[in-house]
């Protein structure tokens, strides 16, 4: 099953993470404003809704 993965080199650490707001299961979140967003793989079900919302395309789906 594919899971969303965030490329920390591409993530801009947006104040409002658009990908997180698009996630229907709340699998994407930020712990620290200075760090990139994180995907909780146990929650992500690979729908891909977050891919379109990330303005810098820092998220990809990978088979796990």
Question: What does this entry look like structurally?
Answer:
The protein is of the alpha+beta class. It has helices spanning 18-22, 49-53, and strands at residues 2-6, 28-29, 38-39, 59-63. It starts with a strand and ends with a strand.
Q: What is the radius of gyration? A: 10 Å
**String of helices and strands:** EHEEHE
- Average of pLDDT: 94
Low-confidence stretches: none
Helix content: 10-25%
What's the total count of β strands? 4
Which band does the percent of strand residues land in?
15-25%
**Largest β-sheet summary:** 2 strands, antiparallel
Distance N terminus to C terminus? 6 Å
Shape: globular
Lateral strand order in the biggest sheet:
1-4
Class by alpha and beta content: alpha+beta
What is the multimeric organization of the chains shown?
single chain
Number of helices: 2
Notable features of this structure?
64 residues; alpha+beta; two-stranded antiparallel sheet; two-stranded antiparallel ribbon; 4 strands; 16% helix
Q: Which secondary structure elements does this structure contain, and how are they paired or packed?
A:
Blueprint: E1 2-6, H1 18-22, E2 28-29, E3 38-39, H2 49-53, E4 59-63
Antiparallel strand pairs: 1-4, 2-3
Concise structural overview:
With 64 residues, this protein is an alpha+beta fold. Helix content is 16%, strand content 22%. Strands 1-4 form a two-stranded antiparallel ribbon. Strands 2-3 form a two-stranded antiparallel sheet.
């Amino acid at each position: 099953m594919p899971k969303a993965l965030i490329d920390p080199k591409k993530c801009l650490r947006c104040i409002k993470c658009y990908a997180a707001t698009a996630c229907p299961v709340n699998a994407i979140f930020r712990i620290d404003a200075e760090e990139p967003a994180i995907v909780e793989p146990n929650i992500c079900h690979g729908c891909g809704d977050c891919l379109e919302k990330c303005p810098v395309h820092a998220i990809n789906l990978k088979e796990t």
